[in-house]
Amino acid sequence: MSTANDPWGRVDADGTVYVRTADGERVIGSWQAGSPDEALAFFCRKFEALDTEVTLLEQRVTATDLPAAQARTSIDRLRAAVTDAHAIGDLDQLLARLDALSGKIDHRQEEARAARDHARAEARDTKERIVAEAERLAAEATHWKASGERMRQLLEERKAYFADLEEERETARAAKEKLCAEAESLASSTDWSGTAAAFRELMRSWKMAGRASRADEEVLWGRFKTAQDTFFQARAQVYSAKDAALREHAAVKTQLLAEAGKLVPVTDVRAARAALRGIQERWEQAGPVPREAHERLESGLRRIEDAVRKAEDTQWRRSNPEALARAQDTVEQIRSAIAGLESQLAKALEGDDAKAVRETEEALAARRSWLAEAERTLAELSS
User: Fold this and answer.
1) Which pLDDT value is given to residue 2?
2) SS3 209
């Protein structure tokens, strides 16, 4: 078995697969079925799956109000998966992105805490202002009618303030209810690429929708995340199953290629053609293979097909009476031309004509070369 190298890993001659990290190399598996390049491609796809998970978590942290506790649990799970991953790729970069996410969550928690403190302070100031004016009116009231009217105005101001807050939360709840419904309608989609893009748009819309009440927010996010996870988990399972199926197809075609290789050199054209036809039928039935194995397998089979085709062409020429007759006629014509040139050469030598001798000898050399080729062709057709 040959070897293969990648900036982030390699495959040894014995099939041992390594990944390179900042801490050095470590063994992540063994590969015996297929070429080293196919091994690299397989373990690179494992890395791509991890990269997709990290990207999805980054989008959730950036574009949604994912609770910090849930985010940290996901980060810890992914960090463990990346640390022990049997995958070839820049694993250190994935870990750095997870560390950056942790920092972003810390920063977001500080911002959220500051926003809550500001909202509480604003609400407290509003309440205190209303209460203070109410107390002043009660203490200084001399015009009961005017004071009573102002008290009613203060109560209305308080109601309006909290009504505005409630309206904002209700608007956010309604918007996120709609986003949940859209996400749930996409959860069973099998349009993997298009739906993944649609979920990214939904997450951006979720961030822009604002915050509902704490209780509503928790329920709605649970619905949204469940729908999103359902889709991406199904996509991962399908991709994994497809990858396994493609590798099984490649194993079948590798065996068929070995079987076809026994047909060359071709000794029995008819038997070789019949055997090759059966191999070609099973080849088509085996189905598609991983992209990195396609050229190796297809070019290998093409070489066998070309060898059998050439053997058929050679046999046809040998069994074709017209071709044999043409070859015999060509040999006779060249031999006759050579005899004529030899006669001319003798006369040139007798006349001591140096120029004629040189030209005739050159013509003879060319004709004798043609004769040798024509006689080889005739011999092949006659055998």
Assistant:
1) 62
2) coil
* Domain presence at residue 366: yes
Question: Cis omega before residue 290 (within 30°)?
Answer: no
Q: Is 291 a member of any domain?
A: yes
Give the whole-angstrom CA distance, residue 205 versus residue 172. Answer: 11
- Domain boundary among the residues 318, 337, 354 is at 318
Among 301, 318, 335, the domain boundary falls at: 318
Give the chain's residues under pLDDT 70: 1-2, 33, 112, 115, 130, 133-157, 159-164, 318, 383
**pLDDT score of 286:** 92
288 and 372, same domain (yes or no): no
What's the angle, vertex CA 117, arms to CA 114 and CA 122, rounded to 5?
125
**Which tokens belong to 27?**
């063994």
User: Which distant-in-sequence residues (6+ apart) come within 8 Å of 75 by Cβ?
Assistant: 57, 98, 101, 102, 105
Q: Same structural domain for residues 300 and 375?
A: no
Structural domain that includes position 299: 244-318
User: Nearest 5°: phi and psi at 16?
Assistant: -70, 135
Those residues whose C-beta lies under 8 Å from the C-beta of residue 66, and which sit 6 or more positions away, are 60, 221, 225
21 in any annotated domain? yes
Q: What is the pLDDT of residue 56?
A: 86
Of 31, 37, 47, nearest in space to 5 by CA: 37
Q: Which secondary structure element, helix H or strand E, spans residue 16, and what is its range? A: strand 16-21
Q: CATH no. for residue 376?
A: 1.20.58
Q: What is the pLDDT of residue 350?
A: 87
